[in-house]
Amino acid sequence: PHGVAQYDFEASHDDEISFKEGEVIILTGRMENEWLKGKIGHKEGIFPANFIEIIHPLHSEVYNGRPDSSPSPRSGPRCRARFDFEGEGQGDLVFEEGDVIKLLKHVGTDWLQGELDNKTGIFPLSFVEIIEDVPVESQQDPDEQNLATTVFDFEVLYRCTALYDYDSAQIEDLCFNAGDTIEVLQDQGEWLKGRLHTRFGIFPKSFVEIDAAGKRIFKPIFKRKTEEQLAKALFDFNGENDKELTFKKDDIIKLGELVDGASDWQWGNLHGNHGIFPVNFITLL
User: Fold this and answer.
1) CATH assignment of 78-138?
2) Mapped to the 3 state alphabet, what secondary structure does 45-112 carry?
3) Which residue ranges run through the membrane (predicted)?
4) Which CATH fold topology does 2-62 show?
5) Is the pTM of this model over 0.70?
């Protein structure tokens, strides 16, 4: 739950929190109709509700009375919530202890996708008790099977925590909410490539804080699984010699082999030209 400040607010008491227009405030509670409680970074306090625009309301207010609720499923694949789940990011399904959720499919080994009150999302398997499981043959769709055979497998370089919400309309970007924990797969300088649950994408490094316990860097491991693979350029790259392949952002490159002894450089072909380039300048198609 969070909101965006519409005006500056200067605290006049110790229990209040100051903010500037445009700042993102994590909502933690409602004190009364006209005041909310929230956090900005490590600061927490109360403020007038009419000073912000609520983007995602408090869980208790979304589910109070459940005006759009639908009957709980009594047959078919379903599970019962063992605990409340507030959600950790966009695409998560929020629920309360005792809710009966319609099961749609398994997502990896530790997550499920389900439907509750006409909303669909993912949630941890450990938060529910399965009443009737999804048939094995319907648990994975063709798109996910294609993703499972992607050319590159990555080790996690380190983990980071989102300081702010990041909401982008770009398909290659990874959207998240403040407080989400993201696994970083590639460090591209000012941008990172990461994974949040089952979603992958790039995002600005300035929106996250690298976990102090996770700064050991591991090289990505690449595995060739197909004869031909295409990639899309994330940035311009100007080769400095005749062995390097020059390209522009959004160019589509045919990938070759990795450079011997350098797992962060790749051979590729573009418009009849053959050369090497850094792997962190591309994303797979």
Assistant:
1) 2.30.30.40
2) EEEEHHHEEEEECCHHHHCCCCCCCCCCCCCCCEEEECCCECCCCCCECCECCCCEEEEEEEECCCEE
3) none
4) SH3 type barrels. (2.30.30)
5) no
